């Protein structure tokens, strides 16, 4: 009978080493020698470590401070980038690689068939195609090629040291192994950034809207400029005449209705940045501030680092998976980024024959380039998807995508991210830039995503802001609607010359700023269209105009300003139409609350939640009856558009609810929406969930989006949409930085996470609570010639095996 226990034991061992559906093999996962137990970091680590690699050319040192920020000292640039790659991999390998899987449409390969739709979308968007173009541009430039080669070698040097027991936890949970790194993976990461920040295009939705409404009404619903603007370049700034002009072809409206597979993207991603000149600061030195608002996740999006070589000394945050410092400062300048939010993606309706082999263009049939995308699927046979490429770019939608009953016509993409570009060269140059001219040269090679680069100079005291990127040269309304793809007359007619992009240098007002608002007013001589913010930029300008004797602490306070500037504009207007006599006694309590509100969206504010509930309900009551149509993609106008339209015309046509027999007035809709919002507020109040920090709060989710135990959920935060402190449920300031560029540079920063990607490390999320509390850490630039008390650990690198 002894054979029975043996058989059972063998069966259990076999079972524990199999994957069951999407679950990992539990044997390796729970193994004391190889499983998740290995992720626990010792409380105390050796103060010094010696490492040798054949790829290195000389000796180097890395000093780690009390937050495990590495300060890299290398005698040559190649070694600095090698070490940066090694450190990124050592701390963030799984994060780096997962993002490239996501960008390249490979998630089904590790996560199974549920991600096939996502992977097909990424392949049809031409993400790998775009990354291949970027690799060509990177490798054509000696500086960026050397940087990427050294960085890639550093990553792979670390990967080669790993055995399965050393793999980051997520590899063990998901049951796969890391791959060698390549420059293509770095390029995919850059294109993923382009997708996140520069792939918002409403061509299909606006083309749909033209089927139901006149051009005049559509222009009111989705205007180029809001009724009140606070442009990045001050209104009234004279612009030189355009040197290029787009000539419009005959008007053409594609008579079709479209549905899309697109998820509802967060359209309030953005950032704030500004620089104030010494004339407005207490110290007389310029101060620069930046807080990019992006997806919040663990591991954190950014990785803090100092890189010191004979040719540069730069400090700031890097993107794990890419070399250099993307936002930061060096011995001479500081810089920061906000998203430009221009529409740089257009759709063209194509006519094909012979399946996907030929398309009509300029009166002749032209052969398409067919790219067969083989998508590996865990546990299943691969899926093969043929994507046709045209003169415009890849065909995104056709009669097989998103499903088998999709579009009768074929829709091709024209997107600036598909053009060859070398954003890494811009970062390479910025990290070394010493003055305004070198800053301009650095950002001149930046293509996509278009960014507002703010600048402050230490030596000169200069401040500036440029909107950098390739902006298509368009005629009025080009880019709003689907265009005929069979005629080259509808092509972009070049790009706005870089030197004519919106910019300003040392303005008389003593500051420059941006917060994703429109770059310039209607006097700018070129057509630029996009999805712009308003109220954050307006509030920042109002505060900076009023401030003098500014200190870095003032700038920190402004980054966390919670004044609800949109509510400030909306409430006095809405109050005219809210007859409190029509409310119940319980609803009146919330009416009193909201009109006694100090307009601060603090975590403990109940009024902020009530206002948000009210406006969301009002928006639905105005627009849903007209815009909710089966299987047709239509957009709600932006909040500011709705508000200012109502201010101009309180009887505008969309106020009436066409689903009812009566004709509603704005008084009716305002009262009804507030009553519903008050009822919702009462329920939340009874559950102790009405405070903004409890009702909405902030979730910093694990990057997998499926591991709550590795996330920080329900954080008690304020801020929100239309607020300088743009903290929301899953988006917000992913890095706050303030730099005073005086005789001695002083800098502060924080991000909501930690340096390590290992959940077993105390440096995984050690910055989260301080970030919620509004604290900043001092960003100390180390000098190798000086002993630094805050150094807690050193690694000595040398050449050799």
SSE topology:
Blueprint: H1 3-16, H2 26-30, E1 48-53, E2 60-64, E3 70-74, H3 77-103, H4 107-111, H5 116-124, H6 127-140, H7 142-159, H8 169-174, H9 183-198, H10 203-212, H11 215-221, E4 270-276, E5 287-295, E6 297-298, E7 303-309, E8 312-318, E9 327-329, E10 333-339, E11 345-350, E12 352-353, E13 358-361, E14 364-367, E15 369-377, E16 380-389, E17 395-397, E18 410-415, H12 423-432, H13 436-443, E19 451-457, E20 463-468, E21 483-484, E22 503-505, E23 511-514, H14 535-546, H15 552-559, H16 565-575, H17 585-595, H18 606-627, H19 639-648, H20 666-686, H21 692-695, E24 698-702, E25 712-715, E26 731-733, E27 736-740, E28 746-750, H22 768-772, E29 777-778, E30 793-799
Parallel strand pairs: 1-30, 3-7, 6-24, 11-21
Antiparallel strand pairs: 2-3, 2-30, 4-5, 4-23, 5-26, 5-27, 7-8, 8-9, 9-10, 10-19, 11-18, 12-13, 13-14, 15-16, 17-18, 19-20, 20-22, 24-25, 27-28, 28-29
Q: Mind explaining what this structure looks like?
A:
- The protein is α+β, with helices and mostly antiparallel strands and 801 residues long.
- The protein contains 22 helices and 30 strands.
- An 11-stranded mixed beta sheet has the order 1-30-2-3-7-8-9-10-19-20-22. Strands 4, 5, 23, 26, 27, 28 and 29 form a 7-stranded antiparallel beta sheet that branches. Strands 17-18-11-21 form a 4-stranded mixed beta sheet, with no helix packed on it.
- A hairpin with a 5-residue loop joins β27 (736-740) and β28 (746-750).
- α3 (77-103) crosses α7 (142-159) and α17 (585-595) packs across α18.
- It is globular and about 85 Å long.
């Amino acid at each position: 009978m002894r054979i029975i226990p043996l058989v059972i034991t063998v069966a259990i061992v076999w079972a524990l080493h199999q994957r069951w559906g999407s679950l990992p093999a539990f044997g390796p996962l729970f193994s004391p020698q190889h499983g998740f137990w290995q992720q626990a970091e010792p409380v105390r680590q050796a103060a010094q470590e010696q490492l040798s690699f054949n790829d290195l050319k000389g000796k180097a040192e890395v000093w780690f401070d009390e937050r495990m920020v590495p300060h890299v000292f290398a005698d040559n640039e190649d070694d600095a980038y090698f070490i940066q790659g090694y450190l990124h991999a050592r701390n963030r390998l799984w994060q780096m690689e997962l993002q490239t899987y996501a960008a390249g449409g490979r998630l089904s390969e590790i996560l199974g068939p549920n991600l096939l739709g996502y992977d097909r979308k990424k392949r049809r968007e031409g993400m790998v195609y775009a990354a291949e173009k970027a690799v060509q541009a990177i490798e054509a430039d000696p500086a960026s090629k050397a940087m990427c080669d050294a960085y890639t070698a550093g990553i792979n040097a670390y990967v080669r040291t790993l055995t399965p027991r050393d793999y980051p936890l997520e590899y063990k949970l998901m049951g796969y192994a890391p791959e060698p790194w390549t420059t293509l993976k770095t390029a995919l990461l850059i294109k993923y950034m382009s997708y996140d920040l520069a792939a918002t295009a409403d061509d299909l939705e606006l083309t749909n809207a033209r089927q139901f409404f006149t051009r005049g009404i559509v222009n009111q619903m989705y205007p180029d400029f809001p009724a009140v603007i606070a442009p990045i370049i001050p209104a009234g700034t004279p612009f030189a005449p355009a040197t290029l002009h787009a000539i419009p072809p005959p008007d053409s409206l594609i008579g079709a209705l479209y549905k899309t597979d697109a998820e509802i993207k967060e359209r309030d991603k953005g950032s704030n940045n500004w620089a104030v000149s010494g004339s407005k600061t207490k110290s007389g030195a310029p101060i620069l501030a930046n807080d990019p608002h992006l997806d919040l996740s663990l591991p954190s999006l950014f990785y803090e680092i100092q890189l010191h070589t004979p040719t540069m000394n730069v400090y700031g945050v890097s993107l794990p998976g890419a070399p250099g410092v993307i936002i930061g400062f060096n011995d001479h300048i500081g810089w920061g980024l906000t998203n430009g939010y221009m529409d740089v993606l257009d759709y063209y309706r194509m006519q094909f024959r012979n399946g996907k082999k030929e398309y009509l263009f300029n009166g002749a049939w032209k052969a398409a380039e067919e790219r067969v995308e083989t998508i590996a699927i865990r546990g299943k046979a691969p899926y093969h998807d043929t994507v046709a490429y045209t003169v415009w770019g890849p065909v995104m939608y056709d009669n097989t995508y998103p499903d088998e009953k999709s579009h009768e016509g074929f829709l091709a993409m024209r997107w600036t991210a598909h053009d060859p570009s070398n954003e890494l060269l811009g970062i390479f140059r910025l990290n070394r830039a010493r003055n305004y001219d070198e800053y301009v040269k650095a950002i001149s090679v930046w293509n996509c995503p278009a960014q507002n680069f703010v600048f402050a100079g230490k030596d000169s005291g200069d401040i500036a802001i440029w909107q950098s990127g390739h902006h298509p040269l368009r005629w009025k309304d080009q880019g709003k609607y689907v265009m005929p793809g069979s005629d080259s007359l509808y092509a972009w007619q070049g790009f706005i010359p870089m030197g004519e992009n919106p910019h300003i240098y040392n303005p008389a007002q003593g500051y420059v700023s941006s917060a994703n608002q429109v770059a310039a007013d209607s006097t700018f001589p070129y057509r630029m269209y996009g999805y712009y913010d308003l109220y954050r930029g307006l509030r920042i300008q109002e505060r900076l105009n009023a401030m003098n004797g500014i200190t870095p602490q003032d700038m920190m306070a402004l980054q966390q300003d919670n004044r609800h500037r949109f509510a400030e504009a909306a409430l006095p207007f809405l109050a005219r139409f809210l007859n409190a006599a029509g409310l119940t006694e319980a609803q009146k309590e919330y009416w009193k609350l909201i009109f006694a509100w100090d307009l601060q969206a603090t975590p403990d504010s109940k009024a902020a939640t009530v206002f948000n509930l009210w406006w969301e309900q009002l928006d639905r009551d105005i627009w849903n009856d007209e815009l909710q149509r089966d299987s047709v993609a239509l957009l709600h106008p932006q909040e500011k558009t709705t508000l200012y339209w109502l201010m101009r015309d309180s009887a505008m046509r969309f106020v009436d609810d066409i689903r009812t027999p009566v004709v509603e007035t704005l008084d009716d809709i305002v009262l009804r929406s507030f009553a519903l919002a008050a009822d919702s507020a009462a329920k939340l109040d009874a559950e102790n969930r009405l405070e903004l920090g409890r009702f909405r709060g902030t979730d910093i989710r694990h990057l997998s989006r499926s591991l709550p135990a590795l996330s920080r959920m329900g954080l008690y935060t304020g801020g929100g949409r239309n607020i300088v402190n743009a903290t929301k449920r899953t988006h917000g300031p992913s890095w706050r930085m303030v730099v005073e560029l005086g005789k001695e540079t002083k800098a502060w920063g924080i991000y909501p996470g930690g340096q390590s990607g290992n959940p077993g490390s105390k440096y995984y999320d050690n910055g989260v609570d301080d970030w919620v509390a509004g604290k900043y850490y001092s960003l100390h630039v180390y000098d190798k010639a000086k002993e630094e008390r805050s150094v807690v650990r050193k690694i000595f690198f040398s050449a050799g095996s």
